[in-house]
């Protein structure tokens, strides 16, 4: 699953959740946006916040709410729970389970 920040139709950066079926990896991908634009778009969407150029914290409930309605696999919920359990085991999940630490990747050159 990818949360990406891209320039929207009105040239205002927007956050969107894509590849919702791929629960084997999760990261934040930045298009051609500044760190400030990315931070603003992520917070405006309610999906999380940018900590720095390499790390973001995503809101687990908001991420699930954005992804689950578009998921088509019958075992999606089970795989989601496994992804969250794996993140907890790696130390990427906050103690209360509300925030998930993810890596930031630049998609600008892609």
Spatial sequence of strands, sheet with the most strands:
2-1-3-6-5-4
Low-pLDDT windows of residues = none
- Structural class by SSE content: alpha/beta
Number of domains: 1
DSSP summary, beta strand count: 6
In sequence order, what are the helices and strands, one letter per element?
Answer: EEEHEEHHE
Range of strand content = 25-35%
Helix content: 25-40%
Question: What is the approximate shape?
Answer: globular
Termini, distance in Å?
Answer: 17 Å
Q: Write down the overall mean pLDDT.
A: 92
The description of the largest β-sheet is: 6 strands, mixed
Radius of gyration: 13 Å
Question: How many H/I helices?
Answer: 3
Features of this protein?
110 residues, 6-stranded mixed sheet, globular, alpha/beta, 29% strand, 3 helices, single chain
Compact summary:
With 110 residues, the protein is α/β, with parallel strands linked by helices. 31% of the residues lie in helices and 29% in strands.
Task: Please describe what this structure looks like.
With 110 residues, the chain is α/β, with parallel strands linked by helices. The protein contains three helices and six strands, in the order E-E-E-H-E-E-H-H-E. The chain has helices at residues 35-45, 60-67, 76-90; strands at 2-7, 13-18, 27-30, 48-50, 55-59, 99-106. It is globular and about 35 Å long. The protein starts with a strand and ends with a strand. This is ASCH domain-containing protein.
Write the layout of secondary structure elements.
Blueprint: E1 2-7, E2 13-18, E3 27-30, H1 35-45, E4 48-50, E5 55-59, H2 60-67, H3 76-90, E6 99-106
Parallel strand pairs: 1-3, 3-6
Antiparallel strand pairs: 1-2, 4-5, 5-6
